[in-house]
Amino acid sequence: MSNQIIQPRTLKGFRDFLPDDMRIREKVINTFKQEFEKYGYEPLETPVLEYADILMGKYGEEAEQLMYTFEDRGGRKVAMKYDVTVPAARVLAQYQNQLTLPFKRYQIQPVWRAENTQKGRLREFYQCDADTFGTDSIIAEAEFIQMGIEILKKLGFENFFAKINNRKIIDGITQYAGISKDQFASVCTTIDKLEKIGEDGVKKELEERKISNESITKIFEVISQKAESSLELLDKVSSILATIPEAQKGVEELRKILNLLKAGGIKETFYKVDLSIIRGLAYYTGPIWEFEVTGGNVGSVGSGGRYDKLVGLYVGKDIPAAGGSFGIERLIEIIKERNMISSDTQTTILVTIFSSDLLELSFKTANSLRSQGINTLLYPDENAKLDKQLKYANKKQIPYVVIIGPEEKANNKVKLKNMKTGEQKEITVV
Amino acid sequence: MSNQIIQPRTLKGFRDFLPDDMRIREKVINTFKQEFEKYGYEPLETPVLEYADILMGKYGEEAEQLMYTFEDRGGRKVAMKYDVTVPAARVLAQYQNQLTLPFKRYQIQPVWRAENTQKGRLREFYQCDADTFGTDSIIAEAEFIQMGIEILKKLGFENFFAKINNRKIIDGITQYAGISKDQFASVCTTIDKLEKIGEDGVKKELEERKISNESITKIFEVISQKAESSLELLDKVSSILATIPEAQKGVEELRKILNLLKAGGIKETFYKVDLSIIRGLAYYTGPIWEFEVTGGNVGSVGSGGRYDKLVGLYVGKDIPAAGGSFGIERLIEIIKERNMISSDTQTTILVTIFSSDLLELSFKTANSLRSQGINTLLYPDENAKLDKQLKYANKKQIPYVVIIGPEEKANNKVKLKNMKTGEQKEITVV
């Protein structure tokens, strides 16, 4: 390699975050952290590498093919984090004696997937999850939905809502329609497309999947119900599925969630029951939800639900769990597109250096400003012309510049220049 | 795998950070971020995986053997981040047109090394770096040393200091002592042990390395100089090495740094010139430094220096650079051992649920508290006995508990209990 230049480049699907990006990311991440902590979720971090068998315990073959796995130098089969849910379940099992249940944790960390980047998919991206372990109460679900609404508001979104459903109602609908176990998964996958391909599209696809007309009619008898409110919709569904205990239980859970959201003073424009959302079939066991930002073809920016069976894989006994994930990368993209958060530099003042013999004075002044809590950049070259330093401040969009020349030195003052207005005034820095 | 439990475990050298750990880590990391930004360093993050040839450009064979490398699913040879300096150099080359020089960046991210864990070494740990690219002025060095001192103070340390040296002086000393190029590295390695094995130890090892007595005497003529102050020490060294221009240049650089630190009002107890510190030989080209916390066998908690040749490997032309790394993992360990930062929960109030029919009232109360900015945990189970909920608050060390029973409901009040003193009072939550 010797004298050859090493070609600088990034792997496809991986990104560098330069300062402008970082500032927006950090503001978004800090909003999540603050809100998670406001709701009593506690921070957790797990390693990037895990024993491969631990990460592969839960996922299907498809996921395993997307996992970054390799043999480490000790011959262990290891894998890079695929999501943050399985590591959290592993932690719950491993530190059973140390962690008190119920345990609410949040985790904001990158994960890796060997996705096809031609579709614009990322191979490294952050996940942002919050979950409650060790309770079967729908308080966990209601609080998460409420928190999600609050977070989206805090981030500056106005038009969005949570779509809420329940796996138990989905099971009830398919039972009611006489769908066999074999057909269950493909029927659900098709129903999930309702918003995308419309009622006719779903009907057509169900026909193609050899679902009887009678079954299709029964499915739509339920999922196309309309009502003034979500509670009313639940009443209708409840009466259609009156003979199916599973569905009744699911309706009752959603009623409780809706009542809590109402008690919490959340406006009904922010949430609604939507019987067509399905989410991960192998995973969820109760209420499920999706957050959708309206306008600009954005779609889902968060989702979650109850999954009472996962943790048991590691603990050996079921530990009920409910929570979800925010699509933090997608949210950041929208926030950038819509200029919702400023990427302005965090530096308030550039202290220039008039000449090398006045360096110590500038150094001292920069220090005084910092000790007053002001983010201050001292131009790091005492031989640069003042003009170059001022241009630098403009390029970096630093709002103020301090100049200390011989005159200012003599008067024991410094010149403070507002780079936007050009206004200058002499001030004393102690 | 089916019904078998997946054994929960972590790879050796990798760690989970449970909430108590996380809270301390976050406080430490936030202190670094705030101080870095106070000095005008900007945030940067780079991917975990890079093309292996990029990461291997700089390091010797030893490092390559410690690197986590593998072939990805596309047959590319990739490696996990080994440090954050090389990725920063790569970024500088890759985004030359986008980044304005001088560029000050900080980077706080995990790195991976396939270390021998039997020596207690970690395989995944955070690095915490700040560097200034694009200036050859010693302002970069002086500011970093000053910032390091400020950060250690902010973290709560009182007894620590920076040891400062210059590669140019080391070169000068070895020239003065007539050390050949072949012997240079091994002589430096031995001198670096001065504090550890003492003067006699170093002399003995140099003899073993076949260094002549005359050379050893000359080395010690310089490095065993004592003086009242660091500036005085530099005067003495300067006159001994009067005929060696390289050394004169090195002395002059350190003089400037010391003068700036003095101008900045930093107490001299916090820094001193120490001619025995060496640092990475293949890497640094000018001033170098180490931060040492005294007491408790702690040793170095940070280091850095000027390295004007690294970035050129990626850019094709030299870009001067100076900066360093804080041993954030070691600092966190000391902070925990010495109880310098509390790991107390961030939750201020637990709102209990008196009975399931009073759930909505508790839910509403928790919301009101949160909207007032109070971190509030609603006990996530409406069927738990009050006593269990109070015990939970104690176990989690949540300082306050709110109780809302039928009586409180009737009076439109809630009971607020201080869990430390047992004191209770009725308050109104709107």
Outline of this structure?
The structure is a homodimer of 430-residue chains. In chain A, the strands form 3 sheets. An 8-stranded mixed beta sheet of chain A has the order 1-5-6-11-10-9-7-8. In chain A, strands 13-12-14-15-16 form a 5-stranded mixed beta sheet.
Descriptive account of the structure:
The structure is a homodimer of 430-residue chains. The two termini of chain A are 53 Å apart. The first copy, chain A, has 430 residues and is α+β, with helices and mostly antiparallel strands. The model of chain A has no long low-confidence stretch (mean pLDDT 94). The longest helix of chain A is centred in the N-terminal third of the chain and has 20 residues, at 19-38. In chain A, strand 3 and strand 4 form a beta hairpin. Chain A is elongated. The first copy, chain A, has helices spanning 19-38, 52-56, 61-66, 85-94, 139-154, 167-176, 181-191, 194-208, 213-223, 230-240, 245-263, 312-315, 328-337, 359-371, 386-395, 406-411, and strands at 42-43, 49-51, 69-71, 77-80, 103-112, 124-133, 160-166, 271-273, 287-293, 299-306, 321-326, 349-351, 376-378, 400-403, 414-418, 424-427. In chain A, strands 1-5-6-11-10-9-7-8 form an eight-stranded mixed β-sheet. Chain A has a five-stranded mixed β-sheet with strand order 13-12-14-15-16. In chain A, strands 2-4-3 form a three-stranded antiparallel β-sheet. In chain A, helix 10 packs antiparallel against helix 11. Chain A is 41% helix and 19% strand. Chain A has 16 helices and 16 strands. Chains A and B meet through helix 1, strand 1, strand 2, helix 4 and strand 5 of A and helix 1, strand 1, strand 2, helix 4 and strand 5 of B.
